[in-house]
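Slide 14.
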Amino acid sequence: MFVLSDIHGNLPALEAVRADAGSLEDAFFCGDLVGYYPWPDEVVDVARKKDFIGVRGNHDEALVIGSSFGFGGEAGEAIQWSKGEVSDRNLRYLEALPYTRSEKFQGKDVLIAHGSPRQPIEEYIYPERVNEQFLERQTFDPEVLLLGHTHVPFVKEVGDALVINPGSVGQPRDGDPRASYAELDLKAMDAEIHRVEYDIGRVEEKVEEEGLPVGLAKRLEKGR
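Slide 15: predicted structure.
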């Protein structure tokens, strides 16, 4: 199965990932369909039609409650702009997304959160924080834990658990500008991070056309 996170309204990046993966039906999704980039409605459309198995991210939350409080600068501007761009049907889809999701797939217990199970919207979990003590503090015992929010990909085994952050489809922050996603093999209990080039210039042109902050597009070139 494929694992995606942090698409952030970046349709060209999502299209490139979909072409690379071959199919995104029933993909796991770790939150933030919207925010930053100028195709929020189109991206939510894909998630809804492909039946993503996902959760709500902090940008999704901001759009649902209609407030960019806590978002500064460019992120806040993008949330305000996105309010009028998402259809009622897709807004209802975002509203229905849970904060965490725990289900059994192929005999494995899988838990999905955007930040962390303990703080699903806001907590940033980088790979160096993922250890047995971290898992013990979460008051859960999944075999597979899927996280997003940091935009930094990793796959890490901790005891009997597999912890995965697929990185960001729409705004990578690990110094690699290519879109990032993960492929998860539940039978083998293993995962691989994939990177895909896409047309960043198309995003830059659309950002400028819609009057969004130019810095949002420029950071894509550096993957930061």
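Speaker note: The longest helix spans residues 11-21.
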